[in-house]
Amino acid sequence: MKITFQFFLLVNILSLNIFAQNDSCTFSLSGTILDVETKEPVPYVSVVIQEAGKGTIANEKGEFFINGLCSQSNTLIISCHGYCDSVCEHNHRHGKVPHIYLRQKVVDVATVTIKAQVNKKKGTESISQVTVDKSELKDNPTQSLASAIEDEQGVALTSAGANVQIPLIHGLYGNRILILNNGLKHG
Fold it and tell me: CA 95, 100, 105 angle in degrees (round to 5)?
């Protein structure tokens, strides 16, 4: 009888302990993260309860909420890119954490070098080029430049009177065709 009574007493004590543990995890924590200088909310801040291993991310207004905490005293680790990490203690007897302020972190960046390179376009280059050298002109010294290049692909001649021939190159003529004579513009 004595053993059953002790067993019954032990089971009751353990069950009360389990219920007490479940009831003690009802604490919650909420607050707002602000910039210390501007007093503006800091969005998307990481808030972690060190003892519980629980955490959350603040919303775009800098507000956060964590529930299901078992301890009345908690250590909050607050971090955000561009701000110094912050550690603060909170006791639930004081209620809601009104505001937590973060200080901006100055990040020194190594030397930044920007290089720009200009690609110079050669104004005299085109897709197709034809070069007439002295040997071709010496073969028939009386011919005009137009008749010297008329055998090339895409070249036709048009006449503008007696002994005046104008080259028509791929549909272009006159000042739309660049003709160089010893590197100087001709015509």
Answer: 165
